[in-house]
Design brief:
Layout: H1 3-6, E1 19-28, E2 33-40, E3 47-54, E4 58-65, E5 69-77, E6 82-86, E7 89-91, H2 98-110, E8 112-113, E9 116-123, E10 134-144, E11 157-162, H3 166-171, H4 178-197
Parallel strand pairs: 4-10
Antiparallel strand pairs: 1-2, 2-3, 4-7, 5-6, 5-11, 8-10, 9-10
């Protein structure tokens, strides 16, 4: 029995997909758009409206130096109105491959580059209301190249922390960005699988 079949056990059939009947864009907010869909319930055909945040795919990069330090950035976030300790990341530009965005954002936001860029997985930031993907990478053996490049309103400060300190920073709430936590967890799972299979 495959892993996919194991989680489907329990007797109930999978829910049927809803058919989208109409859609319109309500707002264009530069980095995302708000769309309203009218979709039919597969059980009775009645239509309901749903709101979707359309956004480009994003990337996250966990940069690690040769001596085992993670290159983090600290920046002010307007949603939380607080400083946030994060890994570099950002939106993919049109026509850009995820690994290109990862290398670009890493260099722009931290001034670190080079090393080996390893893909660790793609996740959905919030499939209930968002349509995009988050592609996560680890950059091993990065080196300082130049000062971070400030674009527009971006302002970051680089923080180098030992990789071993990251779990405590997460558990203590110092790193509280969910997508950053997800990237570290995904990397941890990939490392454990690799060790178990190797």
């Amino acid at each position: 029995m495959s892993g996919g079949q194991k989680w489907r056990q329990g007797g109930a059939a999978s829910p049927a997909p809803w058919q989208r009947r109409a859609s319109d864009v309500l707002a264009d907010c530069r980095v995302f758009r708000i769309r309203r869909d009218w979709s039919a319930d597969p059980r009775d055909g009645r239509e309901h409206d749903f709101y979707v945040v359309e956004a480009p795919d994003w990337i996250n990069v966990i940069p690690v130096t040769a001596d085992g330090r993670v290159v983090l950035i600290e920046q002010f976030r307007h949603g939380s109105r607080e400083l946030s300790l994060e890994i570099p990341g950002g939106m993919m530009d049109p026509g850009e491959a995820p690994e290109q965005t990862a290398a670009r954002e890493l260099l722009e936001e931290t001034g670190y580059g080079g090393g080996e860029l390893v893909f660790i997985g793609s996740t959905r930031p919030n499939p209930a209301i968002q349509n995009n993907w988050l592609h996560s990478y680890v950059a091993r053996g990065v080196e300082f190249r130049h000062e971070p490049v400030a674009h527009g309103t971006e302002q970051t400060a680089v923080r180098l922390v030992p990789l071993a300190s990251v779990p405590r920073l997460i558990c203590e709430g110092r790193i509280d960005h969910a997508l950053v936590v997800a990237a570290f967890y995904l990397w941890s799972l990939c490392e454990k699988l690799s060790d178990a299979e190797g």
